[in-house]
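Form 12-C: Joint structure prediction
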Amino acid sequence: AQSVAQPEDQVNVAEGNPLTVKCTYSVSGNPYLFWYVQYPNRGLQFLLKYITGDNLVKGSYGFEAEFNKSQTSFHLKKPSALVSDSALYFCAVRDSGYSTLTFGKGTMLLVSP
Amino acid sequence: GAGVSQSPSNKVTEKGKDVELRCDPISGHTALYWYRQSLGQGLEFLIYFQGNSAPDKSGLPSDRFSAERTGGSVSTLTIQRTQQEDSAVYLCASSWMGELGNEQFFGPGTRLTVL
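Section 2 - Result
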């Protein structure tokens, strides 16, 4: 089975401060991990993915994520948050043998001016 | 280039009526997915099409739900005898083939409200 957990419903951060949105996963094989962002009344937009290779993955809009196999985590990070980063963020995992992604329940990121 | 499009953007229907939701994937994408997004519930996988293979229907919540994909392109999700618990945003996504590492591109969704 494959599953993903986002332990925080909401993350609050001040503009200019670093941000972290947490994600942990469970798979039986090698994981393929993704982060998506959803702005109000919009579909999901792809941010970044980990397939293999370097544990630190860089993506769109200055976001990055670190794959940690021992902790089965794939936390999303950004060194300096912007108000425009405020949105709903989804982590997703795909295991070999599965047809599609399993998404977490999402974490709302609120960046205050 | 054109992204994934969905229609209608909003649909309000009465309980017991049938509804059809449409998805136009990105040209050339062979994999197509339907998801349901309910408030506070994240994304729930419904069905997956890959080329000419039999679809993976394992996520369909009941036999009132069905989907088809004509000509390997446009897909229609049909909900028969709608119930209030069917109210949600229905998202369609497509990707290059169905390989594990390929990201999915999402449409804007159809917001379904069942009165």
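Section 3 - Comments
The mean pLDDT of chain B is 91. The interface with chain A takes residues 4, 33, 35, 40-43, 45, 48, 50, 56, 58, 91, 93, 98, 100-101, 103-109 of chain B (CB under 8 Å).
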